[in-house]
């Protein structure tokens, strides 16, 4: 009966197989209890990889629950709290529970060999007290407990890696989604030309399709308040959030069960030591408690260094991006040394903080590593010198075994504490980024129309890059009334700084609408587009910025831009552009 149940599929729910085009579905949903427990369902892929070098097509597709789309969709459905971190951990509560059960059982079974060793030594010392068959049972249980402990440990790590992978998908998805929804004014510089326009003196120009003036109000340089500076997230910071912070937060969640494991093992070790050594074991436990304030201080110092280092890392990535994006200008003006000096200066600060952080981590790890030895000395000193008791062979060997076991959870606790502090800093950075104000374009572009409203254009509209309408020095587009002509080429003409790019971005809803209305049929999903029979327009808009760029492909691929190849049209395009 046990073999029949174990060889059947794991669970009693209907099997759902998620198929990715071109990939073999994962056999995990159809695996039996024995197969899941021993991971034998992976054997086919491992043996195949042993024979030939595997390619992407040789790797099985993920389960439906492990796909980023399914994980993020579930995260949006289970939101029940205003804090992002609470929602994040709430989604994986079941996996955390299973992981806790596995690690708790592992922690208890870890002490079986030590306790059984005590019984065996007592039998060797006094064979008449126990039967030989019972002693052999203890030996067999010692042999069985170790594989079971290893299996539970592996299961806990497997569940942890699954949590880690799914959580990273949520973090990267949320950061990327937020980067697309943020207000452009509080996030990044648009392009070099756009920056030039916003920094230029105010200018009043005229639209080619309207007599309405496009005006601006402000000083020669746009000034930012300290509050806006604090909320600014440049490209380097976003890259750091996706590449570093999301990794640190998700990675630590794969090993959080070590906290439970360390706590249970420490409590059991002290309890068993108390049964062996009496109050002398409590003296050893008191030693651990007395050393906690020092370790707490070291952990807080480690967290502060981590916070400083991430800020400097953001700055370094931004400097590198600026250098790469403007490499041609840097070469033209021979500014290489200046940029190298700036990058090396930031890198030196980063290395200095990294060295200090590693130094604190070494001290913290050394203190935790030394703790079991100090506890052992204190406990044996109290037991033999103060109490004057004799240290027998069963008690001595069992106690030493327990003190040796106590070293592992304390080492784990030290490492986990430092990693948790670093992950907390990263999680706070992600939460702060996700709290940034979002664009109001989708509300702005859904306006009630009247008979005088244009199909595409503005109606007595005033725009600003700032969210506050009372900021006197901010660049503004004031009182715009423009009706763009349908089925015609509309041209906006003006000198640098007149607000041409800002006008287009305002039409797209990227600027903050202070008053008036803006009309642009462009918020419906592209797959649902329907041509309006009255105007011939669709709810779609495309914007090409002033920054030139190329696909990583051939010249033909750049010209076609994923369109089907038509030789006649292709030659006409080349001739027209020549």
UniProtKB/TrEMBL annotation:
InterPro entries registered for this protein in UniProt: ABC1_TM_dom (IPR011527), ABC1_TM_sf (IPR036640), ABC_transporter-like_ATP-bd (IPR003439), ABC_transporter_C-like (IPR050173), P-loop_NTPase (IPR027417)
Domain ABC transmembrane type-1: 100-422
Polar residues bias (residue ranges): 206-220
Gene3D superfamilies, alphabetized: ABC transporter type 1, transmembrane domain, P-loop containing nucleotide triphosphate hydrolases
One of the record's GO molecular function terms: ABC-type transporter activity
Transmembrane annotation, as ranges: 95-116, 136-158, 255-274, 280-298, 358-386
This protein's record includes keyword Translocase: no
Pfam families: ABC_membrane (PF00664), ABC_tran (PF00005)
Keywords (A to Z) from UniProt: ATP-binding, Membrane, Nucleotide-binding, Repeat, Transmembrane, Transmembrane helix, Transport
A GO CC term assigned to this protein in UniProt: fungal-type vacuole membrane
Region (Disordered): 187-230
Protein name in the entry: ATP-dependent bile acid permease
């Amino acid at each position: 009966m046990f073999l029949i149940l174990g060889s059947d599929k794991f669970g009693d729910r209907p099997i759902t197989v998620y198929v990715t085009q071109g990939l073999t579905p994962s056999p995990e949903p159809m695996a039996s209890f024995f197969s899941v427990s021993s991971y034998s369902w992976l054997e086919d892929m491992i043996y195949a990889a042993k024979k030939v070098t595997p390619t992407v097509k040789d790797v099985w597709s993920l389960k439906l629950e492990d796909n980023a789309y399914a994980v993020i969709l579930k995260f949006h459905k289970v939101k029940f709290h205003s804090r992002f971190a609470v929602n994040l951990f709430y989604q994986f509560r079941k996996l955390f529970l299973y992981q806790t059960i596995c690690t708790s059982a592992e922690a208890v079974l870890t002490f079986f060999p030590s306790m059984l060793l005590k019984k065996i030594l007592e039998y060797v010392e006094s064979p008449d007290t126990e039967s030989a068959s019972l002693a052999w049972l203890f030996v067999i249980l010692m042999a069985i407990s170790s594989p079971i402990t290893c299996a539970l440990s592996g299961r806990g790590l497997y569940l942890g890696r699954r949590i880690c992978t799914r959580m990273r998908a949520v973090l990267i998805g949320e950061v990327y989604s937020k980067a697309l929804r943020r207000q452009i004014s509080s996030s990044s510089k648009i392009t070099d030309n756009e920056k030039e326009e916003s920094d230029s003196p105010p200018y009043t120009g005229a639209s080619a399709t309207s007599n309405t003036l496009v005006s601006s109000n402000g000083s020669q340089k746009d000034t930012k308040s300290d509050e806006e500076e604090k909320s600014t997230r440049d490209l380097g910071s976003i890259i750091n959030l996706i590449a570093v912070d999301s990794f640190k937060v998700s990675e630590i969640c794969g090993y959080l069960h070590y906290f439970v494991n360390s706590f249970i093992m420490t409590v059991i070790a002290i309890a068993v030591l108390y049964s062996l050594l009496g109050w002398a074991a409590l003296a050893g436990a008191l030693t651990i408690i007395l050393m906690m304030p020092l370790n707490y201080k070291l952990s807080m110092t480690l967290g502060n260094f981590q916070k400083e280092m991430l800020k400097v890392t953001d700055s370094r990535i931004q400097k590198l991006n600026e250098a790469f994006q403007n490499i041609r200008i840097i070469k033209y003006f021979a500014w290489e040394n200046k940029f190298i000096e700036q990058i090396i200066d930031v890198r030196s600060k980063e290395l200095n903080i990294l060295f200090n952080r590693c130094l604190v981590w070494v001290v913290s790890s050394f203190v935790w590593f030394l703790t079991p030895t100090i506890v052992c000395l204190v406990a044996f000193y109290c037991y033999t010198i103060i109490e004057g008791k004799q240290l027998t062979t069963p008690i001595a060997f069992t106690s030493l075994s327990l003190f040796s076991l106590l070293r592992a959870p304390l080492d784990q606790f030290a490492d986990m504490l430092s990693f948790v502090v670093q992950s907390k800093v990263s999680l706070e950075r992600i939460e702060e980024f996700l709290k940034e104000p979002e664009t109001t374009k989708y509300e702005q572009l859904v306006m009630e129309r009247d008979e005088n409203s244009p199909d595409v254009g503005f109606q007595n509209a005033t725009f600003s890059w700032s969210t506050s309408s009372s900021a006197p020095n901010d660049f503004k587009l004031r009182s715009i009334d423009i009706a763009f002509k349908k089925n015609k080429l509309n041209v906006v003409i003006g000198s640098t700084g007149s607000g041409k790019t800002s006008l287009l971005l305002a039409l797209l809803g990227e600027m903050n609408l202070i008053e008036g209305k803006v009309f642009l049929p462009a918020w419906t999903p592209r797959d649902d587009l329907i041509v309006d029979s009255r105007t011939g327009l669709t709810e779609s808009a495309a914007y090409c910025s002033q920054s030139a760029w190329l696909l990583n492909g051939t010249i033909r691929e750049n010209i076609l831009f994923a369109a089907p190849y038509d030789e006649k049209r292709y030659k006409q395009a080349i001739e027209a552009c020549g």
